[in-house]
Design a protein that fits this description.
heterodimer, A: 202 residues, alpha+beta, two-stranded antiparallel ribbon, B: 195 residues, outer membrane lipoprotein receptor (LolB), chain A
Amino acid sequence: MMRFLILSLCLLTLGCGSYPKKADLTPTNLQVNTVSNSYFSDLTKDYVYKAQIEVYGKTFGGLFIIKKIGENHHRVAFTTEMGNKLFDFSFNGDNFMVNYIMDDLNKKMFINILKEDFSALIKEQLAVTGSYQKGNYTIYKTHILNQPYFYFIQNEGLEKIIKTKGGKEKTSFLFQEINDNIADQITIKHQSIKLIIQLKSI
Amino acid sequence: MMFSVYGQTKMSSSQAEALRNLVKEQAETTKTIKSDFIQYKHLDFLSNDIITKGELRFKSPNLVKWAYTEPFEYAVIFKNETLFVDDEGKKSQVDLGSNKMFKQLNQLIIKSVKGDMFDKQEFNIAYYALPHGSEVHFSPKDSKLLEYISSFQIIFSAKGDVEQVKMLEPSGDYTKIEFKQRTLNSRLDDAIFNP
């Protein structure tokens, strides 16, 4: 009985363990205050991506558009290839506004998922609350909308953002083919729901 | 009364009738259309319009292939009650019968390709004369459709061919499509409409 209890406790501890432990990240004591994501930081650029969204086995495409229009202020919109607008959001500091969303998509849960994903995608400066090391990666812990996120940096470039919940990886953001401070390929993958957003710069 | 809006002159009712007849006649005798197009997606907050290019193929009465070639490959084929999509090799289909809005948009796309949208039941229609043709604004009467598109604005050549279609959204953003190298009634194999 005692052995079972100890085993259960061990499993419980492991199950609820922190993300750094589970992901095998080694804590470091770097004196760094902020981590930055500059992939959508240029006011003069229109960031336009061809998007493929897979949700519960269904695939649909369109154009994904991000525009920085001021300090901490971005517009994020999605249209079909033929130009029909599906949604258009504003992120201004901590304020989020739906400028437009097509009736069929106007579901609170769906909007919340997009709001969280895109907040993480565009946030430029984030306060660091912890630092770690794994292989060639330097990893910084931060918080967005009160959720813990881990920023994976290699050769001074941001390669990956991991959103966690209950010590588990919940959503990953992968930045690839970086040219001139633009991520030509971005993949947003959810673990708890079957949702993958793939973006290719055009 | 004649007046001018942004350089356009409003047509008299007899001029409007002549245009309607010309476009209808042109639409009836058009069995196939081959055309290149340039699409401009205008969003007010962007510095530049998003430009995409491609080819349009139409075969009477209702086969349409709308294929983007730049800067990505993406094609939609409207065939029977189905919309076939080829997204850089990933193929899928949408049953138009199951989605009223898609069905309505599909019919409008087919109609706007030929320009034959002169339906007073469906639209409030305004006619303007241009130096080398005419421009007609079709505002949907259906309140549901009006949420997506506040007006279709079609520019016709003097011969009654569609040269440009602009779909204006209630926000002021729009999609503008310019047709280039349009050839009518050349041979078009049915096979190009196979998904």
